[in-house]
Write a structure and sequence with these properties.
CATH topology of the largest domain: Creatine Amidinohydrolase
Strand order of the largest sheet: 4-3-2-1-5-6
Oligomer: single chain
Distance between the termini: 48 Å
Radius of gyration: 23 Å
Structural class: alpha+beta
Number of domains: 2
Shape: elongated
Length: about 350
């Protein structure tokens, strides 16, 4: 943890700031190991303060190291008065995570401080995973593979999407996942053409494509996988869509390496879809980073300015979604090595017939 804080101090100096106020709980966990639900931290080159409320006195003393602890009765930001910040200090705030209400509160409480909006300062550091972080994501992906194989015999006509979603959550928890990193997506039939269609009370019918998008969390780190199955025999169109999506994912795997831009990798897959007549039916970004947050850096999409780096862990998820017909998506998780990527979710992604 101390090494991560030192890297952050380097980034603070790089941006010519005097300090950074951290309000993202994921970033606080990354830097300090804190797993509570209420905290902020102020990091500068010569100081480091961690503020939480009195519910977490003992927990913070056990988990947080390398920072002076402050415990608030109610107002976390008000505790910063005890630090006696110097007039004119340039203090960065996490613009993505700080609410307008709290930003206004800071400006009113500390009018002598120059508050500067920053974006993803900690996230850039956290995007380069250490071996133990990769190991946790690998275990989470392995768990997803086990749950997927356990689900297949259960999926049959008459089951509701919500029933399958509940089975996913229950079985993941029973097998070691700390929580769902996101609400499991189970979308069947025409609803499988909705890229992020939430699970509904719709019952599965023969011939339905069923998209299963879910994850698991180990030691705080998330895996995120997607598989598609068909209830009964698959049609020629379903098979064609699955073949193209799986080939698109293999193409992305072969092209992914340090230095490639996220938008370049996305464009390779988008061009492949166009060549196969499905350019209008791939309607989301190709992928995203994984870590303590299920959607992190680097971003892999049409507008992304990020590039892959050694140590990134990413999810790649091409899909085809045809209105009134259905969809197919496959998603795996990868760690970026010096010469390419390693698949952390190595279980079958063929189009399986169930029920």
């Amino acid at each position: 943890m101390r090494q991560r804080i030192e890297k952050l101090k380097e980034r603070i100096r790089h941006f010519q700031l005097d300090a950074l106020l951290i309000t993202s709980l994921a970033n606080l966990r990354y830097l300090f190991g804190f797993t509570g639900s209420s905290a902020i931290a102020l990091v500068a080159s010569d100081l480091c303060f961690f503020v939480t409320d009195r519910r977490y006195i003992n927990q913070a003393k056990m988990q947080v190291h390398g920072a002076e602890l402050l415990f608030a009765i109610q107002d976390l930001f008000g505790e910063l008065k005890k630090i006696k910040l110097k007039t004119g200090m340039k203090v960065g705030v996490e613009a993505i995570h700080l609410s307008v209400k709290n930003y206004s509160h800071l400006k009113k409480t500390f009018p002598e401080i120059h508050w500067v909006a920053t974006e993803r300062v900690v996230e850039r550091i956290a995007s380069l995973k250490e071996p133990d972080e990769v190991a946790s994501i690998r275990r989470a992906a392995d768990l997803c593979g086990k749950i997927y194989l356990d689900l297949l015999p259960l999926i049959e006509p008459g089951m509701r999407e919500l029933d399958i979603s509940a089975e996913i959550s229950y079985r993941c928890r029973r097998n070691g996942s700390e929580r769902d990193p996101f609400e499991p997506i189970v979308a069947s039939g025409k609803r499988s053409a909705l890229p992020h269609g939430i699970s509904s009370s719709k019952m599965l019918e023969g011939g339905d494509s069923v998209i299963l998008d879910f994850g698991a969390v180990i030691d705080g780190y998330a895996a995120d996988v997607t598989r598609t199955v068909v209830v009964g025999e698959s049609t020629a169109q379903q098979k064609e869509m699955a073949r193209i999506v799986e080939a698109a994912l293999r193409l992305a795997e072969s092209m992914a390496k340090p230095g490639i831009a996220g938008k370049q990798l996305d464009a390779v897959v988008r061009d492949f879809m166009k060549q196969n007549g499905y350019s209008d039916f791939f309607q989301h970004s190709l992928g995203h980073g994984l870590g303590l947050e299920v959607h992190g850096l680097p971003r892999i999409g049409e507008l992304s300015e990020d590039s892959l780096e050694t140590g990134n862990v990413v999810a790649l998820e091409p899909g085809i979604y045809v209105p009134e017909v259905g969809g197919v998506r496959f998603e795996d998780n990868y760690v970026v090595h010096t010469s390419g990527v390693e698949n952390l979710s190595r279980f079958s992604r063929e189009l399986v017939s169930v029920g």
